[in-house]
Amino acid sequence: MNDSNQHRETEPPIEMRIVRLDNEKTCRVEGSELLYDIYFEMLGSPPQAWGILYAGEWKLLNAEHLDLWQAARVERNCLVMRCPLNQVVSLHLRFLKKAPVLTNVKYAQYASVIAKERSEERLAWERERRNAEAIAKLVVL
Fold first, then answer.
1. Which pTM was predicted?
2. Residue 46: count of CB within 10 angstroms of its CB
């Protein structure tokens, strides 16, 4: 992984939240009369790690309602939920709004841990360089 990708993975994003339902992308699932892929546009495209954390938060929020649980995933700058249209407002909307907020908190914690680890790695590398430079000064060829 190159530096720019690593940086993208751990850089704290803007506060992710849903800004609107995208009517253009929302569509009925092929072969189903009831299920739709419903696209909720977010402020931006979150890092991959944010999407992974979101999946966990989504499952935790819905743990008490497994009989009503519907899949939700991150796809670029959208949260995508597969369910009947009539369930969005009545059953899922409050969790769709809450899950990104909880994920933002988890991601900030994750990013902090990663930043600390990278800082420690950088300090260790700098110590090694200083030690190597000290040894190099002692070596006479």
1. 0.74
2. 23
